[in-house]
Amino acid sequence: MIKLSEWKKGGRPAVLWQGNDGFLVSDGDHTIATDLDLFNPERKAPPTVDLDELCGTLDWLLITHGHEDHFNAATVAHLVKHSRCRFAIPQSCIGKAFEIKGLSERARFVAPGDSFGADGVPVSCVRAVHGHIGGCVYSGASMLDCGYRFSIGGLRFYQPGDTLLLEEHMEMQGVDVLFLSPTEHNTWIENSVKLIRFLKPSYVILQHHSTYSEEDPRNYFWAHGYTGELLAALEEEERARCIIPDQNSGIYF
Prior knowledge:
Helix content is 22%, strand content 23%. The chain is α/β, with parallel strands linked by helices.
């Protein structure tokens, strides 16, 4: 079990993966999370964070869209009940949010193009358009889903959520740490390479892999991350900037 007090110590920006797109990001003073999915019964392994310590530490949870592996209702309900955490939730998820008791009072409902301060952490919302099998646009995609750019510990992070490659990515500037999903329903291999080259981040953290069973062929397009194939498609210098996270150890910058 990871001790968050030890993980955050030192004042350096630190990242801790909890599976899929679930990350904690902290500079020692602020702790922001994205898409925590801690109670999903389809996980291959449990999260490594101590829930009591998380509830006493987490300031904000940024949610990208309504699917259970990103907006996990049980995780959010637990945080509402046991923590002081606040939530950024896309307007595409308003209906789901109001089904969780007490959440709406702690939520900021956002849309692409919005900006806000999360207890001193500047956050901006970027459009996300959900993909599907073969990299096509998902029939249930909402133009109100959000990715998030936020600055913490002097670094600029970008969590795209589940999205295909968009014009907004090509025009974006100033990303130090990119969370990247090389799955079939996101930017896969070719477009992941393009995204790395468009944004030129100092660090690329590969996500949306190794969290759920891939035995059911119906899950493969979203559960399997093509991390090895992506690394093979990159230049040596680009590969050196990529990190495959481990749920049992933090990443420090």
